[in-house]
Amino acid sequence: MLSFDILVETIKEIHQSAQTTAVGAINRSMTLRNWLIGYYIVEFEQHGEERAVYGDRLLKKLEERVDEKGLNNTLFKNCRRFYLVYPQIGQIFSKNQITATVKGLLPKSPTASDFLEMLPEKSPMTSDQFMTKPEELISKLSFSHIVELLPISDPFERFFYEFECIRSGWNVKELRRQIATTLYFRAGISKNPEKLLEQMSVEQPPAVLSIKDPFSFEFLGLDAKETVTESDVENALVDHLQEFLLEMGKGFCFEARQKRIIIDDEYYFIDLVLYNRILHCNVIIELKDDKFTHENFGQLNAYVAYYKENEMHPGDNPPVGILLCTKKGPKMVEYALSGMDNQLFVSTYMLQIPGKEQLKDFLIKQMEEIGYDQI
What we know:
The chain is α/β, with parallel strands linked by helices. The chain has helices at 4-19, 26-47, 51-54, 58-66, 73-85, 100-105, 110-118, 134-140, 143-149, 155-168, 172-180, 183-188, 193-199, 230-239, 241-248, 294-310, 330-337, 356-370, and strands spanning 215-216, 252-263, 266-276, 281-287, 320-325, 343-350. A six-stranded mixed sheet has the order 1-6-5-4-3-2, sandwiched between helices. Strand 3 (266-276) and strand 4 form a beta hairpin.
């Protein structure tokens, strides 16, 4: 039975073994190290003798007891999730495939032999056509890449980003940007996803808003076309103004799109201005094709302050600002809101569910072109 002391020693041994691996294999070794750490954490949580004693404090307690640079609560959370999301990595450790490098990562504790006995000869997931091969994952993607992929709950969507990242050689920043700007969704509703991908470049982000979260804008009913642009979305919102206002809630009236204002002798353009007849106030809406940042909030706050000073009429309440973005972290939003005098909100929305069958056909064609061989 796995005890907490054995868990601590096992993680330290895995870490130390990985550190001594040849420089050329550091990325692969660190990724495998993290998967193994995740395995042992899950094993302890499920079968450890003292698991009830540590409960929710397990990972923090591990950080304190392991006491190795880089091994902290955040990493342990990602390791655990890595193991749960990518069980196929276990194939690399199987008895028939294990290499000297991998074998060096395994601890000498009794639990290591139990670990090898537990692994199947072949993962049941390998029959899935849309699963990145374990060796491809750990040799072509760094763990930093994998951390960006872990929050994606749909396995096919996650495979889409894995495949395109490996094929295109995206760095971590570019992968993060493509996820934040929902490339998967845009490719799914584009008639020609090949052309969409050809148009992409690191220097020129794709201009489109297609976001999944509370607001659902599927009523836009955008027709399939070569690529779906931000202009298409804005035009569709105006064309479907009634549905858009109903989706926003009760009492909203349209006032302006791309409202031009002047601050310090410079022109600025507010994406959408609404008026709520129930709240008796203007509602300033800013659309962003990326995840939330505090800079976005600064811009929205400036627009709301401008409206409060220059556009309020007798009987109006102070204006409200809403930032619609592709992704938001609750803590960053909380901190960004701290100390703000104006009433500001952050939300996300989804444009449309992508055509999964079209994307599957598209990926199959791409895999055939580059000779991508599934196990």
